[in-house]
């Protein structure tokens, strides 16, 4: 599904923040992305969701080389990707329900199905009583759960999550990780950027480890 070949990324005229990155992710795989602050995790995630193009090398996603795609083609490709940003990026003028419903409206799902699907998912993440609330009136943890619900509502082919449990208590965080596990079993490829070592050890998926802009891959925990 995803292939990076000798990818490098720099900002402006500065040094490379990612250097000679090469890896392949199979469809339906699940990976954790880890590394110290400043190692390049956010930069790698931005390449994975096509937020920017590399300064060298090649990236192929869903069988398409992204270097050859124009802005409109990239927008179509991004509809296959769900993203949980660390800063949530909720639309402040939309309610919790409307934020989560937005991806379904973009793809043209009927209103009756949108109401049912969004209501069920918000109830599952513990926000059934907050659907008409605006982001500014909610806690950081509640906003994070809305952002996660919005990212998974379309059952994307690829889910990218940047520190998805960072503002959540252990119980809610574990429940949301189980949601990711279920999505993965249904075929969604998942990459979770995290510093949470106990969580990575518990779920045992293969790790992508960044160190000073270079990538190593660590195998899965033995079953």
Describe what is shown at a glance.
With 223 residues, the chain is of the alpha/beta class. It has helices at residues 41-48, 71-78, 96-106, 111-124, 140-152, 170-185, 197-203, and strands at residues 2-10, 16-25, 30-34, 56-61, 64-65, 81-84, 158-162, 189-193, 206-211, 214-218. The protein contains 7 helices and 10 strands.
Explained architecture:
By secondary structure, the protein is α/β, with parallel strands linked by helices. It has one domain (2-218): 3-Layer(aba) Sandwich (Rossmann fold). Helices cover 35% and strands 26% of the residues. It contains 7 helices and 10 strands. The chain has a 6-stranded mixed sheet with strand order 6-7-8-3-9-10, with helices on both faces. Strands 2-1-4-5 form a 4-stranded antiparallel sheet, with helices on one face. Helix 3 (96-106) crosses helix 4 (111-124) and helix 3 (96-106) runs parallel beside helix 5. The chain is globular and about 45 Å long. The mean pLDDT is 91.
